[in-house]
Every structure is written in structure tokens, then in C-alpha cells.
Amino acid sequence: MKKKLGLMVTAMLTAGTILAGCGSSDDGKSSGGGEKKDFKVAMVTDTGGVDDKSFNQSAWEGLTKFGKDNSLEESKGYKYLQSTAQSDYKPNLNSLIRQKYDVVFGIGFLMGTDVETVAKQQPDAKLAIVDMVVKGDNVANITFSEHEGSFLVGLVAGMQSKSNKVGFVGGVNSELIKKFENGFKAGVLTANPKAEVLVQYAEDFNKAEKGQQIANTFYQQGADVIYHAAGGTGMGVFTEAKNRKKNGEDVWVIGVDRDQHEEGMPENVTLTSMVKRVDQAVYEVSEQAMNGKFPGGKIVEFGLKEDGVGIAPTQENVEEKSLQSVEDFKKKIIAGEVKVPKTDAEFEEFKKNLK
Amino acid sequence: MQNNTKKIKFIVPLISVFLGLLIGGIIMLISGYKPIEAYVALFQGIFGGSYYIGETIRQMSPLILSGLAVAFAFRTGLFNIGVEGQLLVGWLAAVYVGIFVDAPAIIHIPLAVLAAGVAGALWGSVPGILKARFKVHEVITTIMMNYIALYSTNEIIRNFMLAPGERTENVKESASLASPFLQSITEYSTLHFGIIVAIVAAVIMWFLLWRTTLGYELRAVGFNQHASQYAGINVSKNIVLSMAISGAFAGIAGSMEGLGTYQYMTINAGFTGVGFDGIAVALLGANSAIGVILGAALFGGLKIGALNMQAIAGVPTELVGVVIALIIFFVACSYLVHWLMNRVNRGGKI
């Protein structure tokens, strides 16, 4: 009896874990029609899956739009392969290359090494990687000008801060996150030269409690707007802001990567968000490749000009005059009149010129 | 009679697999996918060329080892649900030795694999000791040890071994099981030498269980603890030993990932699933060494073929997950299959 019971328990557990990885994948049917082209693009999601409400989903939206615009047929002309484990990355990339897809996108830096190896083994294939730079003449490296987007949300923070004190919470102190920090600081000071920016790094992307602690300190010191570029750690910033809002304090959070309006609900603490348009980037690179201009071996940076970064579409908490200023500076940055600093040295330079 | 039960032992998994595929096909039909096309893609994705065979074998290696781990403990009457955790600590140990030790390959590789085995054995022996001394049920402790392993290994990587990309550095060339030769003959699949380690481990398990006194004692404890005790077998010692050996197999499964497939360890957001699949592999293989290899082949094949099913026939991997789950379901229900077969047989006679 005990054995039978044990068998059932084990079977249930196993089935449970296998099924646990399953989500829904309801992809719309392709519209098709029009003239058919020979061009084929595909992407491999990381383990987040295609409906992760973040960059995988965004990339697939971009690819879908590209497919529709060029009357490609879904799952023949454009498609995605989902990875359920890290060991799936390489087989998935290889599978698409073997099916002769013209460009294969690896979404997310987690796939960096795999893209690099596959590119080396298949020199005729064209690959692209998002948010990472790897070696290889047949790999397009897609990066974003996060500092430009951060500058815009910095403007909003500078104009709408009542205490003239704002905060920045970074994930890990690295070249990438420094771009967020310096862009943001430059934006704040441009809008409000009297403002003070508090900066702290959590040294972790997945520690919500640490984010909450830092937010607590910042708000305590009088900051009323905090911008986070800290992934999961940033969730703690939202928690702290919501708690304070419940107690009647007037505090705000600025979200990152995508429109984080929802994370701020129901207390509505999200002022705005700095969005990275992965969909736009995927669309562009696909188009370049189709026109025979695949940027292999190059780093393609998507900034304001390419519509690769910007402020979130939800703008109910942003004042009219802030929006106006965002629009003004957007034009100036695109025109090259304002150069947003990326590094600490560039920021010091920027600050000097401001005075 | 003896012959007959052997036959049944062989037939039941086959019928189960068939039923799983059949019902999976029906589900695909209902969901609007083409089952025939999908199954063709599935089989092509397993056998259709050296690349796919290479990937299948690569997927098999850790599954064989995790299956052996479960099967070994099962022979002593223990359910080791903690293979996943033991695998993770083994993975970390292998990668640690692979990165921080300098040695020629002939020493480095065995050393790294051994380190993985020792780490897994230590991790596995904790529930063993708790079971032997305090009668704490091993199912609960092993499950909990999985979580401890997952988050501890993540923390260790984060604090001591972090490289860009949420992972450790690559292991040194001399510790790597990867082989450019195997990759080139399989059109750049990720095949590595791990399969040899896995098969050697299967032979060791068989030898240990069936050709040594220790194995005899272990199996005796599995059949009946009280009788074994009465016969003078140290039950406590055997329980700890069984869990430790089981854990060693699981740890070595981790080294397959660390030294072979990946060459590094990542900060895992969740379990790899290899350990849990091992339970099903052992079940499919009726807890015998050769059965585990066959079970792992089936499982590994299905997993790799699933990718092709997605790529060619457009069937979501989730659905393939359902098919695999159905197969396990029917194996677990082998009593049902037995019962059905008996009914049919008797029906024929009367």
C-alpha cells in the first residue's frame, strides 16, 4: 500500500513540475494575403516566455508588426520559438538557422554566449542579440540609449518635485546602469538647477527588500520622486511609495523598461516610466536585413531618434508643462543640440556647461 | 510464470507510451493542430539526422544520472525527491573545481566530476541521517532541501563567482567535457562526453546493487526493513548510505550540465526540472539500470523532439509537456493497465 501511495505521490509531483512550466500561448492567426516575399525572420525567447509582459513580448510584437507590414505568413515567414530551459537556447537558435531563416533574434542578454557560439559555428547565418554586445561578424548587437530616455524622465522629475529632492536607485553599479543614472541626473538639473539627486545602488537586481530600504531612506531625507533602474529590486521602491501614499504622503516612482503604471496601482504612485522599445528595434533590424543592409558585427544603438527609448504612453500623472518640456528636449536631443551624458566624466562636463 | 511477468514488465511501459501518444494526439486534434504532422516532426526531431541524434544524446546524459539516483534510493525503499537539489549542489561543485583548480585534463575532469558526486552525496545524506536517526520522512526533507540548494547556490554564485550575465565564468578547457570532435560529426549539436560518464554510472549502479554484499543489504532493506533488521542488517546505516549514493548520482548529473552542456552555472530563477524528470525516468525504467537508460532515451528524445514539433508543426511546447505528462500518468497507473490486460486475457479464455 505504501509503495502504491508513494508511486502516486511521485507521479503527481512529476506531472506537476512538468505542467508548471506551461502558460498559455494564444497567438493570433496570421492575416496573410498580398504578395509573398522570400524573407523570413524569427526569434528565440528566453525562459521568460513570449507573454512575459516585458522584452520578449515586446520583441514578438515588433516581429509580428514587421511580418504583417510585409505580408509574411505567421510561422512560415515570421515566428518565435519559446525556450523552457536554458539548454533550449542553442537548439532553438540552431533549429531556426537550419530552417533557413534569414535573421534570427536572440532576445535578452541571457542568450549572449549561445548566440556567440552559434554565430561562430554557422558563419553564413545572420543573428541578432538584444541588450548585449558579443563577438562575431554575423551578429547585430542591439543596444539602447537609455541615457536619453532617462534624461526625459529626469526632466519630469525635476519639474514635478516639490521638495527639490529626487532619488535614483540603481541595480548594480555598472556601465549600463550608469547610463540611466547620468541621463537622469542631467535631466533633473536641466529642469531644476536647484534640485538635489540622491543616488544609491542596491548591488542586486532581485532584492525587493533592499529597494524598499533605500526608498525608505530617500523619502525620509525628503525626496519625493524616485527613479529606479533596478529590475526586481525596484519593486520594493513601489511598495514603499504605496505605503507612504496610503498614509497621505505625496510621493512618486518613475518606472523603467516598460510602462510600469500598473505596478503603481491602486495607489497610483507611478509618475511616468522610461520605456525601451524592443519592438521598434527588432522591426528596424529586420527591415535593414531585408533591404540587404544587415548590420552584422556592428553595435546598433536605438535612441530617441530611432524611437528606441522614450517616456511611457500612460501620462495621466504628468503635468502639461512637463510634457511640453519633454517634447522640446526630445527635439533638441534628436537635432544634436543637447548631448546627454552617459558616464560620470561626461556628466561633470555637462554640469559645468549648465551653469 | 517468471517469463510472463518479465514480458509484462516490458509491455506495460510500451502500452503506456502508446496511450500517452494517442491521447496527446486527440488533444492536439481538439486544439486544432495536426497530430500526424506533429508526430512526424517529433520523430524527425529525434532521429532525423546526426544533429538531432546528438542533441537527444546530450539531453539523455543528465536524465540517465538523475534517473539512476531516484532508482537507487527506490531500491532501498526511499523516495528521493531531492535529486533536483543534489543536482544543483553537484553542478556548483563541478563548476567550482572547473574554474579554480589547475590540472591537466586527465586529472581535472575526473576531479570535477568527483567533486560533484561528493557534494551531491553530502546533500543527499542529510535527509538520510534524519530518516535513520529521527524517522523524519525523507519526502518532506528532500523537497525542502531542494529549495535550500536552489537559493544557497544562487547566493554563492552571486557573492563569489559572478561574471557578467548572471552566471559564473566558464570552466577551464581542461575540465570541459565538450568535444569539438563530437560537435563536428553531429553538425554542431551540443553533444559532449558526458554520455560516457552516464553509462559508466549505470554499470556501477547495476554492479553495486546486484553483485555486492552492500547491494544485497540495500535491496533487503528495501523489501522489508524489519526482516532485514532481524537478519542482522544495520538498517540505519543502509538508509544513510543509500541516500548518499543516490545523491552522488544526482550530483554527477549536475556536472553534466556544468562541465558539458553549459560550461558554467547560472543564477537559476527556478528548478532545472532534470531532477524531477529523473523520478519519471526511474519509474519508466522500473528502477533498473538498463531501464533507466531506455527511459532517459525516451524522455530526452521527447524533450528534443518537442523543440522540433514547435519549430516545424507549430505545436506549442506546452502541449508536448502534456503528452509527456500523460505518458507518466499511464505508467503510474500501470496497475490499471495490468488490470485491463488481465480482463482482456481472461475474457479471451472464457
Topology of this structure?
The complex is a heterodimer of chains A (about 350) and B (about 350).
Chain A: H1 2-20, E1 41-44, H2 55-69, E2 78-81, H3 89-98, E3 103-106, H4 112-121, E4 127-130, E5 139-144, H5 146-160, E6 165-170, H6 175-191, E7 196-201, H7 208-220, E8 225-229, H8 234-246, E9 252-257, E10 270-276, H9 278-290, E11 299-302, E12 309-311, H10 320-335, H11 344-354
Parallel strand pairs in A: 1-2, 1-3, 3-4, 4-5, 5-11, 6-7, 6-8, 8-9, 9-10
Antiparallel strand pairs in A: 10-12
Helix pairs in contact in A: 2-9, 5-6, 5-10, 6-11, 7-8
Chain B: H1 2-30, H2 35-47, H3 50-75, H4 83-100, H5 105-134, H6 138-160, H7 180-185, H8 194-211, H9 213-223, H10 225-230, H11 235-261, H12 274-284, H13 289-313, H14 317-332, H15 334-349
Mean pLDDT of chain B: 88
Strand content of chain A: 15-25%
Q: Number of domains in the coordinates of chain A? A: 2
Number of E-state strands of chain A: 12
Query: What composes the largest sheet of chain B?
Result: none
Query: How would you describe the shape of chain B?
Result: globular
CATH architecture of chain B: Orthogonal Bundle
Helix tally of chain A equals: 11
Write structural notes for this entry.
The complex is a heterodimer of chains A (355) and B (350). Mean pLDDT of chain A is 82; it is low at 14-36. In chain A, helix 2 runs parallel beside helix 9 and helix 5 packs antiparallel against helix 10. Chain A is globular. Chain A contains 11 helices and 12 strands. Chain A is α/β, with parallel strands linked by helices. Chain B has a single domain (34-314), classed as ABC transporter involved in vitamin B12 uptake, BtuC (Orthogonal Bundle), CATH 1.10.3470. Chain B contains 15 helices and no strands. The A-B interface holds A 4, 6-11, 13-15, 17-19, 21-23, 25, 47, 75, 79, 81-82, 84-88, 90-92, 94-96, 98-99, 109-110, 112-113, 118, 121-122, 132, 204 and B 51, 55, 59, 79, 81, 139, 158, 165-166, 183, 188-190, 257, 261-262, 264, 266, 269, 271-273, 276-277, 279-280, 283, 304, 307-308, 310-312, 314, 316-318, 321-322, 324-325, 328-329, 331-332, 335.
